[in-house]
TrEMBL record:
UniProt-listed CDD domains: RPE
Catalytic activity: D-ribulose 5-phosphate = D-xylulose 5-phosphate
Gene: rpe
Name of the featured protein: Ribulose-phosphate 3-epimerase
Organism: Dethiosulfatarculus sandiegensis
Molecular function via GO: D-ribulose-phosphate 3-epimerase activity; metal ion binding
InterPro entries: Aldolase_TIM, Ribul_P_3_epim, Ribul_P_3_epim-like, RibuloseP-bd_barrel
Cofactor: Co(2+); a divalent metal cation; Fe(2+); Mn(2+)
Coiled-coil residues: none
Cellular component, GO annotation: cytoplasm
Active site location: 34, 174
Amino acid sequence: MVKICPSILSADFARLGEEVKAVSRAGADYIHVDVMDGHFVPNLTLGPPIVKAVRQVTDLPLDVHLMIDNPDEYLEDYAKAGADFIGVHAEVCTHLHRSLGRIKELGKKSCVVLNPATSPAAIEYVLDMVDMILVMSVNPGFGGQKFIPSSIAKIKAIKEMLDARSLSVPIQVDGGITAETIKDPALAGATVFVSGTGVFGHKDGYQAAMEEMRNAAG
Ligand code: DX5
Ligand code: ZN
């Protein structure tokens, strides 16, 4: 039931193709791709050409997390580059309903993302048009940060909102996820887990990292 999505932000970028193949072989469910623009978040990472390159080396779904201003302007580029899920932050989408609709029009799975300070109320009226909801458990921008515990209550609140509407949208959580932190968000209702340093930085390798997380999530 639990899905693990290694975030390539913590991979060795000089050997990105090999790294993506290695986590794919080691049992990853999705490949999580963190796109940062140096404006919405204080870090700059990668764009459509890298998504396109990653698309060539794995058959797994690419889960593209856009941490950028004006995401509407770039949705088509990421769709063409081979994204399967496109995630946009509620905080930057003035017309969130339109942005999510556009992702669907492009034939992609839509994901709405909430920063740690953003209330679940921000997505109350778009719940029926998303394929995944991502609760950030760190402030986006960097890998290797500490899990923020208030995200657990938020996951619970979103799960209740979904249940009340008989919707079964998967809840994803991103930031500070390891075998030590995964259990509480899993109990709260999250089923899809992003992990960067928890996978790529694990001393016993990628497969062991993901197995430990699955076991700990229960
Ligand atoms: C943070 C990114 C995360 C990040 C997670 O802005 O969205 O996907 O790579 O890294 P860890 O698992 O190390 O917290
Ligand atoms: Zn991410």
